[in-house]
Amino acid sequence: MDDQKLELPKADVFVIHHYIQDTKQTFEYLKNHLSWAYSEGLSGRQYCNMGADYLFDSENFQDGQPIEPFVLKIMRALNTNFSVAMNAAYASFYEDGESELLFRNDKEQQVDLNQPIFILSYGSPRYITFKDIETHEEYEFLLNDGDLCIMSENSQVNYLHAVKKSTEYNEPRIALSFRRFHNW
After folding, report:
1. CATH superfamily ID and name for 2-179
2. If phi over 0 gives left and psi between -120 and 50 gives alpha, with beta otherwise, what is residue 83?
């Protein structure tokens, strides 16, 4: 494992490369065992919201399912390894390069921004793009299979983030994110 601080002028965002080793088995397990849902507003992505109801983008309400036991094990390990208190998980399944995450931040009222947000990447590499809210300048970083991205509060306040469509990376990808919700 090696870590990298991303070069964002107004935020602390880190990537730990190769944080997860057995990615192929985990990818297949998540793909086959999570209860995936689809929403037209999510740009071709399927999702699985676990732990608490989530008002995603202040528009799309997503019922929270119980946290799947294997996902709970991953979340508890992150909580222990990084001394945090995550209590919700959100999985996104990108079937191909046409699936995307439109620019957004995680400033929803129920998200505790005093805790970082973790994203584990499984499957095909994809670029995560951060856009400065004030200047609209964009910064792009590649997340590979097994990478862990850690976004601090200032990343949600000063930037939007996205996973844009890709012609370069066309294979399936799962992003498993963890955050802390208030009053959960």
Report:
1. Alpha-ketoglutarate-dependent dioxygenase AlkB-like (2.60.120.590)
2. left
